[in-house]
Design goal:
about 180 residues; alpha/beta; Rossmann fold; five-stranded parallel sheet
């Protein structure tokens, strides 16, 4: 039995790193269904968003496809909202993409301030820090910088299943 029916989180995955995975793991342990929204799905090829949506989705699938919870997990893209409030845009996207699932009853965030957009729409918040004592300075920016500098230490912050994809995406295609 799960504590919640439907949880969601919003992550950009530029690239997907172990902190993102920590957030998804918590969600899937506590929820019957989980939705990962990959933010800024319309952007790629920029310094902040070098990877296209489908590459980011593939990174999550590479890590999760062998997990028994994978059949309860949905991964969908969400474009930035310019013409409506963010909370409305997110919840409308989930409802449209997952009309067969109950409305979300919890959002998972890296810090509680990320919940403020949703406090009137989603009754629960699960805070799961993307950092730990082993990785106190984990961020997508940090990982991207290491990749750009060809600093092999980035491999400590991403799943081995994604190393080849990262090398192809960042080095062969010369994205950054």
């Amino acid at each position: 039995m799960f504590k919640y029916q439907h949880g969601f989180c919003i992550i950009r995955c530029q690239p997907f790193h172990i902190g993102h995975d920590r957030l998804i793991r918590k969600m899937m342990e506590e929820c019957a269904y989980g939705t990962v929204l990959i933010g800024s799905a319309q952007e790629s090829g920029t310094e902040k968003n070098p990877l296209p949506y489908f590459t980011r989705k593939k990174m999550i699938q590479n890590v999760w496809r062998k997990n028994e919870a994978y059949n309860r997990l949905r991964i969908i893209g969400i474009k930035d909202a310019n013409n409506m409030p963010w909370n409305f845009h997110v919840l409308e996207t989930i409802a449209k993409e997952q009309s067969d699932k109950p409305s979300p009853d919890i959002i998972y965030v890296g810090n509680e301030s990320e919940y403020l957009f949703f406090k009137n729409d989603v009754p629960n918040v699960g805070v799961c820090s993307r950092t730990t004592q082993d990785f106190p300075f984990l961020s997508g920016n940090m990982v991207r910088d290491m990749i750009a500098l060809k600093d092999a230490r980035y491999k400590d912050f991403v799943h081995p299943e994604n190393i080849e994809l990262i090398q192809k995406s960042f080095y062969e295609d010369e994205k950054i």
